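User: Can you write out an input/output pair for a complex, sequences first and structure second?

Assistant: Here is one pair. Inputs:
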Amino acid sequence: MTITQRLECRARDAVERCMIRHLILPTIFFDAPWPDDGASVDMLLIDRAGTGDVHVVAIKRRAEQVRAAIPQLLKVPAQYRWIVFFADTVKPKIPAPRMNSSLLYPAKGMGRVGVIEVVRMSGLELGANIKVKSERFPGSFEEEVEQFLAGHKPDRAFR
Amino acid sequence: MKPIEKHRMLHYRDRAESFFRAMQLAADRALLGDEAPQYADAAALLAVHSAISLADAVLVGCTGRRGNDEDHRVASVALRALCVGRHALADGVDHLTWLLARKSDLAYNEKRLSGEDLDRAVLKAERFAAWAYRTFPELARQERIP
């Protein structure tokens, strides 16, 4: 595993803690084959104990990877989509996506990709902060979620 | 049991989630650090109220009635009856019953709440909410029109 991959994996724990505060009892999967076995998302969270909205998360080490990652993220079925990157990779030439950045919006229709920044804290711990809240994309995935939950064990579920 | 229009379910669910989020904040030791004990009593009471409101949401959404303000234990009985009608497991109601049994103690007892007591109250609120959403998924599938 490269250092970049290690950091992206470590970020999942920080993002998980952040999203648990943002959502209500989410059921969480890492490296989830969502929506089917041919696909994979870094994190899949299903709100309200697996009965609510679908959130997907793509984690990138560097801010400059965000531009390429978002079009892929927009293809993943979900009501909410989130992009994550490390704050220490933001530079004047590579600014963090802002709320009005067209990058975060689909070409047409409703929805906005949310932005989460990962920061290094004291003791080399990682923390995650929501910088731009995701807005709802259209769609209902009740049947897909039911099927997914029947065939996959979550990494974290509140029971 | 008081009659309430079923569409008011969202009001009770949103209130439950408001209490729930506040409970999580007030019980977050990592966030509060040394000040955490000062919030323990509030967090525990919020756990109770989140469960009461969520029980109300289920009952309003499914039956058009909600629990009694004077005696919240009525809600436990009504939820169990609802589960029988739906052939659903009612084991989650035990968490609500546990919280209701301690409501007065948590609100009026002079003894300081221990960290263990708080953790248990939060866990019960979480388990009741998880059970309620899984047993009555229609709770999660409605949103308020802005």
